[in-house]
Amino acid sequence: MRVAIIDKPGLDNLAIVERPDPEPGPGEVLVRLRAATLNYRDLLTVEGGYGKKQRTVDFIPLSDGAGEVAAVGAGVTRFKPGDRVVGNFFQEWLAGEPDSENLQSGLGGVLDGVASELRLFPEYGLCLTPDHLTDGEAAALPCAGLTAWSAVIDQGCTTPGDIVLTQGTGGVSVFAVQFAKLAGAEVIATSSSDEKLERVRALGADHTINYTETPDWARPARDISKGRGIDLVVEVGGAGTLEQSIKAVRPGGAICLIGVLSGANHEFRLPLVVTRKIRMEGVTCGSLEQFEAMLRAIDQHKLRPALDDQVFGLDELPAAFAHMRDGRHFGKIVVEI
Question: Can you give the CATH number for the domain in which 316 is found?
Answer without folding.
Answer: 3.90.180.10
